Amino acid sequence: MSASASSETVAARCQQRMADCGIRPTAQRVRIASLLLSEPQHLSAEQILASLRASGARVSKATVYNTLNLFASHGLIRQLSVDGTRAWFDSNVDAHYHFHDLASGALIDVPVPDVEFSRLPPPPPGTEVDGIDLVIRLRKKAS
Amino acid sequence: MSASASSETVAARCQQRMADCGIRPTAQRVRIASLLLSEPQHLSAEQILASLRASGARVSKATVYNTLNLFASHGLIRQLSVDGTRAWFDSNVDAHYHFHDLASGALIDVPVPDVEFSRLPPPPPGTEVDGIDLVIRLRKKAS
DNA sequence: TTCCTTGCAAAACTTTTGCATTAAA
DNA sequence: TTTAATGCAAAAGTTTTGCAAGGAA
C-alpha cells in the first residue's frame, strides 16, 4: 500500500513490457516509462523532462526524446499531433479517440464504443485504412 | 479562357473575400490568397513562399506567416495539424474530413456526407462541440 | 501625417544529431 | 570486452518577433 511498493510495481510492469518489446530496460527508460505508463495520460517531452528532474533523476533532454521515439516505434506509447505546437505522448495505446478542450488545452480520452460510424468512405485504390484519428474540439458553452 | 483572365478572376474573388472580412488587400496578401484559394488544396508556409518566389513575387517569410495566421483567424483558410512537423493550410473552410496517405504525406479531402456518426459522446459539462477533426490514415494495401 | 504592412535578421521553440563518456550484458 | 545508451552541446527545422523602412489612406 505504500508509495514505494506501488511504484516498484509500476516499474516492474514497465520493465516487463520493455522486455516483451526487446527494449533494454536502462535506468532512464524505466523512469520515463514508470512516469508515463503509471496511468492513462498525455504528456509532452518537456513535461516529462521537468517531472523527472524535479524528482531528482539525472536525465538529458536527448534521452527523453530518444526514449519516447523508441517507445512509440515499439507501440509502447502513442504520439499525438493535436495542436501542432508540440507532440503529446499518450500512455494509452488501445484504440480510442480524444476530446480537446481548446480553453485549457487538455486532452480527454474517448473510448471506442462511445463513437459509432454508420458510414465511412472507402479508402482510395491501392490503400487501406491504417487507423482513425478523431479529435472532438471543445469550447466553453455559450449559454 | 486565358490564364491571365482566370487569375484576374481569382484575384478579384480573393479581394472580395478579404474585404468581407475587413482585411486590407495588399499586394502580398492578394498573391498569397490567389495561390492558396484558387482551388481546394493543402499547402505549407514554405511551399507557399517557394511558389511565390518562383513566380517572381517579392515576399518575405515573415509576411507569409503573418498573412496565413491572419487569414486563419478570420476564417478565410483553415490550419491543420496532421503530422506535427509543420502546419498545413487548407483552402477549404467548409466542414470536411481528411485522408492522410502515410506513404506520400498527401492529404485528401473527405466530404461531410461520406462520413456518418450514429453515436457521439456528449461533451463534458460546461463545454460544447466546436468542431470535429477526423483523419483517416492510409497505408499501402498489403494484399 | 498617421497607421498599417513589409522585409530582414534575430530570437524562440521543439526536436534531432554528433561525439565523447558511461553503463549494461 | 564489446556493444549500446547517455549527456552535452550544437545543429536543424518551423514559427514568431523586434524594428527600421516602405506604402496606403
SSE blueprint:
The structure is a homodimer of 143-residue chains.
Chain A: H1 3-21, H2 27-37, E1 42-43, H3 45-54, H4 61-73, E2 78-80, E3 88-90, E4 96-101, E5 107-111, E6 116-119, E7 127-140
Parallel strand pairs in A: 4-7
Antiparallel strand pairs in A: 1-3, 2-3, 4-5
Helix pairs in contact in A: 1-2, 3-4
Chain A binds a DNA duplex (25 and 25 nucleotides) through helix 2 and helix 4.
Short characterization:
The structure is a homodimer of 143-residue chains. The first copy, chain A, has 143 residues and is an alpha+beta fold. Chain A has four helices and seven strands.
Would you mind describing this structure in some detail?
The structure is a homodimer of 143-residue chains. In chain A, α1 (3-21) packs across α2 and α3 crosses α4. The first copy, chain A, has four helices and seven strands, in the order ααβααββββββ. Chain A folds into two domains: 3-89, Winged helix-like DNA-binding domain superfamily/Winged helix DNA-binding domain (Arc Repressor Mutant, subunit A, Orthogonal Bundle), CATH 1.10.10.10; 94-138, no CATH class. With 143 residues, the first copy, chain A, is α+β, with helices and mostly antiparallel strands. β6 of chain A pairs antiparallel with β6 (116-119) of chain B. Chain A binds a DNA duplex (25 and 25 nucleotides) through α2 and α4.
Helix and strand pattern of chain A? HHEHHEEEEEE
Strand content of chain A: 25-35%
In whole angstroms, the N-to-C terminal distance of chain A is 45 Å
- How many discrete structural domains of chain A? 2
CATH architecture of the largest domain in chain A: Orthogonal Bundle
Which CATH class of the largest domain in chain A is shown? Answer: Mainly Alpha
Helix/strand class of chain A: alpha+beta
Question: Biggest interface in this structure?
Answer: A-B, 39 and 39 residues
Mean pLDDT of chain A: 94
Counting DSSP H or I runs of 4 or more residues, the number of helices of chain A is 4
Task: Summarize the amount of helix of chain A as a percent range.
Answer: 25-40%
**Named CATH topology of the largest domain in chain A:** Arc Repressor Mutant, subunit A
